[in-house]
Amino acid sequence: MSWLMGSPDKFLPSEWKHANQVHFRSSEAERSLSQRLTAECQRLVEESDKSTKHMQQDAQKKLEQRIQDIKFWRQELDQKFEEMVQEIETLLIFKSRVERALESCSEPFQVTLQCLTVRQKRVAIDLVHDEVEEELLKEKEVIEGVMVLLQRTLEQINEQIRLIRSVKYYLEKDLQDKFQAERIDDFCALLTNASPGLNRGNSDFSSVGTAVTPEEWESLCILNISKAEKEKNNSLSLRALVDSLLEQTTADMRRQYEATGRAFELRIEETKTAKTQLENQLNELLAETANQEKNLESLRVAVAEKEAPLKVAQTRLSSRSQRPNVELCHDPAQIRLLEEVKELANHIERLTKALKLSEMELKALARRQLSLEEEIQVKTNSLYIDEVICHQLRQPVVIHNF
């Protein structure tokens, strides 16, 4: 028990200074952290205030824009509604000679369908609903519209009146909905932060207004208007000379056919450009892969070069641990050897981590290379479909004057 009564261990002056420095640095770090937190909180308060004002202003602006959109489309729909009312009152019966024209629609219609079908053979990301497909679908719709229009000219006036009344019904329904929507949005636009009766609940409105997108909403208006135009044109065709009807339908088909051709040219050019860019990316990627392989090899060499110095330092420490009695002193040499082992181990660890990251990056580059090669093949396939097959299908087509 006599060792318990001995004097406590004493520290070196360097250890005393080191302990003081640790306390100083810890205190300074904690104070700096507190100052940064305070500054960040103040920035957050200012940012939230600015964001709130901006959001309200933006919402007000969008409400006003929405009201203008509704008014515009309501006026357009109201105009078409009045035209339908007048068309019902003035509808006349005319004879038509459309059999030959109807037969002439068969070839371009079949070519359009074949182009739509063959373009379904595009693969991967290139199987996109692009402008060409939109124009082909428009072309299909135009030809079908012409065929329907020519066929309807053989029907009696009662059928045409029924069709116009159907369009009139949907226009009227759409006008009523837009009147109600405009009234509600006018009310919303007048609300301010000081308005009484504001909703103070925490209801979840995330699903409100998501049933129809603005694009779908506008497309519904356009659809109703286009239907009105179509039926108006159908009715006018019954009151127009046969030659005028055939001339107009031919012009519509030719215009859409040319628009589709321009869309094909633009799409082919875009695809060629994309293919060239992908090929350039592939070349750059291959070069980067070579650089990464060199980097990987240099890291391996660096790790290997650190092994020998580490073993030397560890051997020295092991040997010096055999010093006898008081010679087993924690002298500067011992301190430096311990630091050397620690630093060398740290270097090896960091280099090893970098080596693993380099290996992972090399694998990622290989995957990206495969992806680029596949995408280039996709673009090649798309070019063959659009530039060769569809071009050969459409080249013989001529829109005749009926």
TrEMBL record:
The keyword Cytoplasm applies. The keyword Isomerase does not apply. Pfam families: Tektin (PF03148). GO terms for cellular component: axoneme; microtubule cytoskeleton; nucleus. Residues 268-302, 334-375 form a coiled coil. GO terms for biological process: cilium assembly; cilium movement involved in cell motility. Keywords: Cell projection, Cilium, Coiled coil, Cytoplasm, Cytoskeleton, Flagellum. It is found in: Cytoplasm, Cytoskeleton, Cilium axoneme; Cytoplasm, Cytoskeleton, Flagellum axoneme. Microtubule inner protein component of sperm flagellar doublet microtubules. PANTHER family: TEKTIN (PTHR19960), TEKTIN-1 (PTHR19960:SF25). Belongs to the tektin family. This is Tektin. It comes from Sinocyclocheilus anshuiensis. The gene is tekt1.
